[in-house]
Amino acid sequence: MTRRIIQGIVAWGYISLCLSKSFSAPAVDELFDERSASILVVEFFVESEIGRRPTSVNGIVIDSNGVIQLSASAVPSWVPVDKLKEFKVYRLGESDSHDATYLGSDREHGWHYVQAEEAIRDKLKPITDYPLAELKTGQPLWGIGVAMKDMDFAPYFMRAEVSTIQKLPETVGFTTSEITSPGSLLFTNEGSLAGWGSSALNMERYLTIEGRRYQAYLRKPDQTTAFYVASELVKSLGNIPESPDINDMTWLGVVGLQTIDDEVAELMGLGDQAAISISQILKGSPAAKAGLVERDMVLSVDGKPLKRYTPRRVVVADFEQQIAGKAIGDSMLLGISRGGELMEIEVVLEQSPKPVRQADRMYFEKTGLTIREFVVYDNVSLKLDLELDEIPGVIVSFVKPNSNAYTGGSQNGDLIKEIDGVAIHGFNQAVSIMEGLESNESKNDFVMLVARGAETSVLRIALD
Amino acid sequence: MLVKMLPPSIMLKKGKLIVGLGILVISFTLGPPFARAGGSFDRLLEAVVRIDVRETTFAGGSARLVSGVGSGVIMSRDGLVMTNAHVVSPQAVDIWVTLASLERVRAELLGWDHWTDLALLRLDMQDIEERKLGFSVARFGRSDSLKPGQTVYAVGTPHGLSRTVTKGIISNKERYYHDPSGIRGYETGFFNTWLQTDAAINPGNSGGPLVDSAGRVVGINTRTYLGADNLGFAIPEKTARQVMEALEEKGEVERSYIGLSPGFLQDMEGFYSLEANQGMLINSVDPGSPAAMAGIRASDIVLSIDGRKLDGRFPEQIPPIRNLIASYPIGSTLTFEIKRGDNTLSLSVETERLESRVGEEWAFEKWGLTVREVSRTFARELQLESDDGVVVIGTQSAFPAEKAGLLRGDVISKVNQAELVGLEDLKEIYENFDSNPDALLMETQRNRTVSYKVIKP
After folding, report:
1. Which of B62, B143, B171, B206 is catalytic?
2. Is ipTM strictly over 0.85?
3. Confidence category of residue B206, pLDDT binned at 50, 70, 90
4. Fewest CB within 10 angstroms: A251, A354, B66, B274, which?
5. Within a domain: residue A183?
6. Distance from CA of A3 to the nearest CA of B (A)
7. What's the structural domain count of chain B?
């Protein structure tokens, strides 16, 4: 019986899939062709020490200068900007590529920007040309799916209805079935802009293989039911940084933020107030300077109580976005509960310490090892509790397989504390020691003291 | 695909087992050239026992019983039985020993030592006398005088098949192997090397003797590489004999701790400009340990301890050095001669008592919560700020702890805003909760992130 029901569900799922994919003649064929000119496919390589990984994502044209906006996850956040190579764009349905330039990412939402070469800009249609839709539950929408490269990224028609709209804290809509490709667009029947496709949700499914049932989470890479609602999206469009590698992130210096759930808030006498607890305050951070302490509960920002979101964890995301939305030097008035006592603390936000992406790196060919500058992020992830300016060594960010470093036992993420008996307190110092070792013909090997978790070990690395 | 492949492989295993038994039976009945010494070997067989254990486990959010089968060997007239620590632990509630006569008697645990994976039992001698049961006693041989290639026999209860004898040779006398959480989370193998044999050792052989052809016990069979062919390991008699004495006398083996993790100097003597065959490299020093307080640092070279020169170039040489340090009485002051760069230093280290990373475990049945005391070692391993608190090892679904969102691995550091020092505090809170149920606020830490959870009646 159960099996029959499951089979029924599977069959139903299959039919709905066929429907959403069907290329039925759109009543909106003219709109479809025009709107497809607002979507481009962006291709680039992520370069590593020993290879290149191609990436291809959909983006949308946001102005008449050929600026294309990509989702936050389109570019891995830890990859240094100079390792992103050969940006190219394709118009949907065309096989010729055009050059493009990476412009950087928006600090508040993490969206990435790419600019298409001048020659094709007049063929692109910015999304700001379209009227914005007011969405209602049940409203019919259509979207533009983007086919794979061997189909020349051909646009195809998709259709569904608004299922629900949520604040997470961005305003996100969901449709009854797949409506667009991630990074592509969807519209109302009249042609108003409804939204921008985000990545698909994980769908819980049960797979039955030869009578055995498995639980699986499935996600389509090329189609989605989730989208950013356009009327909210356009308010924060095009915050293009001054340069691709600029660090304009603001920083409070708190770690391990957790939403307090309703029962806990009640027990702590916070009533039905939304609250966030702070697990850790980094030494020397703006939060530490302002006198915040670990276990403080944040109740309000600039006099406004934190909003209660469902699910509750969104409260933290909203708070983090409020910090990111401020400029360096701005102050933030935090309403705090400390052991039941209420107080207000003003924090002056500072420029964020260097992100991992911007840390200096150097690859040593003979050793087969890349070392990276130690950054505050490492202080947190290695649980070191150091002062802000304390540098305990350098980090191993790449070990070439079967190289001398690999055979000697080096691992990605190791903290190198000493090289050849010399304590390391800076990146440049480590580089000059490594360069000296690699160019010293009479040297056959050297030792490194590395920390890994709570333990250290001495590694011998050959130099031949 | 997977489902199809499994049955034939199981069949194959069974097939092998049956073939093996067949050969064994033939060799006993026909009795052609037989290296083992008849009488004394038969006495050994009469001393090997099957051990059935029921013990408490706290893994799943409540105290539950699990049962297991292992082997053992009777080592004295007054009923001392050697077995493995992973066969009988202090959490055992029932220990039944099946003698060679197939009679079953109860036994009690005198002590265990997970570091060497050994446990010592005493048979219920009163019962044995009343029922006039007989058994024979095994004798120790000398593991030091074993030679690679020498014939040995393993006797035990593989997969519940009582008194199975398998034959092989000593493959290696000094295998180095340690596991920081090998025996249900407890450390093992730091203080001894292992005998390696190709005599077939399977699950259930654990705790049985490895014997020479005269039936003398040269090791206690302990582990095998599952999936490999005939790579079995036994604790050498030399270690077993010492541990047995300590367990009989005190119920435990006391060891000294100073907090050093040695490395192997292999190939690095040149770098440290050392004399041949001298020195032990320090890989790591536990923060706050006696060695750290004495000023010993990672990458130092220990030349000697209390005047005894050390040679720690190869992995096999490390356990005896660890054992040397451990065997000093707790609280001893040791003089370390240390080479650091071009300097030679002399540092004094006062030893502490060695403790396991595994703390006491307990079940709070009404909460559906099982916890373990946070030990010093565990706190250091997880880089916790202190060794206060208890760590969640299990929750039972639909019970208050699980509903509150407690997860395995959470460290409970406060209850109702008051610091939780250890298990005793929580037991007290539980008792009060039992008589006066009221919502409890628990502060937990996981990877330095603090969360709050509410336990409701």
Report:
1. B206
2. no
3. very high
4. B66
5. yes
6. 19
7. 4
